[in-house]
Amino acid sequence: MALDRVQRRSVVKALAAAGLLGTAGCLGDDGNGNGNGGNGNGGNGGNGNGNGGNGNGGNGNGNDSGNGNGGNGNDSGNGNGNGGASDLVTHEQFGPDDGTPLTFWAQPGSTPDPNEQPGSEVNAEGFRPAYEQWVEENPDYRINVEYQTDLEQMQTLLLQTAATGDAPDVSEVDSFWIPNHWNNLRPVTDVIEDEEDWYPFVRDIVQPEDEWLAVWRNTDCRGLYYRTDVIDEYADGEAPATWDELIEVGQAIADGEDMAAFMYNGGRWEATTFDNLAYFWGQGGELVDSEGAPILGEGDNYDYLLNVFEFFAETIETGITPGRVANIDDYDLLAEEALNDDLAMFLGGSWQINTNLRAELGDEADELWDVAPIPMPESDMAATGTGGWTYGVFTDDDDLVEPAMNFAGVWTDPEIMAHYCEQLGQLPTKPSVYEESDYFAEDYYMQIWSDLLESGVARPGFPIYRTISAEWQVAAGRVITGEMAPQEAIDNMIDNINAEYDG
């Protein structure tokens, strides 16, 4: 059961007094975070695992959705010892030299070697236990790692090599790419075990029909961050749940305080689309049909889209949102407004409580900031955008299917997932982790994110989405700046999307 804010504050104070609160890490690269903290000391022999404090991580800007949570220290980290699986896990290879080889494509931040790149200690600590477990359970095989440094190129190469039968045996796959590979991926259903222990948005993407086509290791989401003292004064402590409530309390704040009431991503970048799509999805809107064709102008979708852009205009016209949101093209810019006491509420990512607020404010962040579901047109609506990474099996060699599937399957282990997500500041994709992991079960904010993930929605990974996103960003900017009325902006947006698809 999640703690309320008063209970949480008592717990936070008690933990702080006992010196048990972890601190947030800093932003990393390629979707993986870096941080500082105590390193575990390795055991002697065996698999080389010992006990020690883990560092604190943060997740940087990745291709899938943008950012990740700042990781938190714990007291049961895995250190590196001598012998066993630990010695067989290196930057470029997992397993013995004489093992049957499999190829694995990964991001640079997924290395198990803490010395491979600056600040990679936290990343390595997050990934290493999973790699070691696979080595122990598959002693006759080895994985040769091929790191992909350009994510857009990686996406293109995966499509090209899958089409020619030359794809890696197993690969990290952005969840956003999965629909493009529904016909290329080998089923991994055998390693899924409890199919109900995954959030609905996960199943929607990786289980398009009967078979599971990937293992989704981590995610993130978005919510309404709000200043507790301000909302206590102007809304009796109740965060706005609807657009009307947001406008009403926002106007009161704008009139009574020297700060902006509400801000969001409104610049020319992906988050302006992804964050605000929640308003469209919450109404029941769909961007594309089952074949990937755009349907924004069809039926109710048009009305839902118009509602969103009229809401953008209303936030500006009522004065609850300053026009400078048209220049917000980084989550850190929203955090700066918040940390400078210039902002009462903002639409932000799950990682920001750790990487931004706790990192700067320490324990005060838990007192000063809370999170609520994204306000919707009606109180019975809910949605939040979700991203994250998966593991997919592409091998054409039937003899390699089992070890490749086992590699993906390691990430279905709740302990492996919990360790990785805590270490790198990500959100688990299995609800059970939020109940069984001490950190995720006891951290107030993690319980909020767990609830919000029940209404999570992933972006459709069809090619036309790139055009949809780009046109959404342009249309949003035109409405926010007053260059176009909402209906004119979305009509122009839809025409451009359809022209690109038909062309």
UniProtKB/TrEMBL annotation:
Which family does the entry's similarity section mention?
A: Belongs to the bacterial solute-binding protein 1 family.
PROSITE patterns hit by this protein: PROKAR_LIPOPROTEIN (PS51257)
Mind telling me what this protein is named? Extracellular solute-binding protein
Record's keyword annotation contains Transport: yes
What organism does this protein naturally occur in?
A: Saliphagus infecundisoli
Comp. bias intervals (Gly residues): 34-84
Entries under InterPro entries matching the protein: SBP
In this chain, the stretch annotated as Disordered covers 34-123
> Which residue windows does the record flag with biased composition (Polar residues)?
108-120
Keywords carried by this UniProt record: Signal, Transport
